Amino acid sequence: MKILGIETSCDETAAAVVEDGRHIHSNVVASQAQIHAEYGGIIPEVASRQHLLTLVPVIRSALDRVGLELDALDGIAVTNGPGLAGSLLVGVNAAKGLALAAGSPLIGVNHLEGHIYAAWLEEADPAVEPGFPLLCLIASGGHTDLIVMEGHGRYILVGRTRDDAAGEAFDKAARVLRLGFPGGPAIQKSAEGSRAMEPPLPRPRIKDSLDFSFSGLKSALLRRAEERGWYPPKPGSELDPGEVSEMAAAFQDAAVDAMATRTVEAAVEHRVRGVILGGGVAANTQLRLEVGRRSPAPVIVPRPALCTDNGAMIGAAGWFHLRDGPDYQWSMDVEPRMRLG
User: Fold this and answer.
1) Is the distance from CB of 108 to CB of 78 less than 8 angstroms?
2) Total-model pTM
3) 160-193 pLDDT, tens per residue?
């Protein structure tokens, strides 16, 4: 059973063909990172216009790599939330048109659920080994959520960010340190040269809660940058790469510690059998290592290419929705603030 997965929730235009929810036949992603780097962040109108230009070629490429035509598909899955409204509309309307033309089943997929099902695209089946319940940390530019997955389609939200998402905090930190966009990879690369000489930054904590908060950490970094004359940037001024590396490492240490601590606390409290990491921030090497080191349960982390936005994760999640019978969601609409659990 082959599903075409389409993802346009933010700034990646992606399509993939996935079989039986576990096997990737093609996975094509067109990134807009260089376009938005000029602005230091994602511009929604620019993102949606770029999706209009690239979506058809990306879908065609995903099908051509497998040698399939539309009528050979068993279904089409598309992200219909959460995300940027304009970007979501491009993907949903394209999916509706393709499904109608091919007479294929059509299913809307929650973007966050897609990040969870990226774990099913690796060798082991998390539902079998280690088995449910599973704790899922979804950390990205727009979300930092802890979700207990009791079974397929059964979710309980147990923790979320009270302010900035982790990826958003990384982007803002990178902007202060003049490291470019996107912030996550830039911070990690800069931190690799650190000698750990910078005093630690605070680890924000919300009492009696599994929720996250990154605004205090971001503010502490900004205050240090202001004290040293780094921010706001002065024309012609340059920063010492070594000092920036130390600050980037201090920020990464604090952010990773906060996420790993909450994740392990939630795993213990809810007695889960395994932990899944998903979302673009889950591509961070230190986070993957730290959660793996601390967790009392096995940790499943998709390879970095499956942590960032892609069509394969949407195709996998769509297959699990469609496996019990076809669905034709012609009245589907986008839900920019869609929740999971």
Assistant:
1) yes
2) 0.96
3) 999 999 999 999 999 999 999 999 999 999 999 8
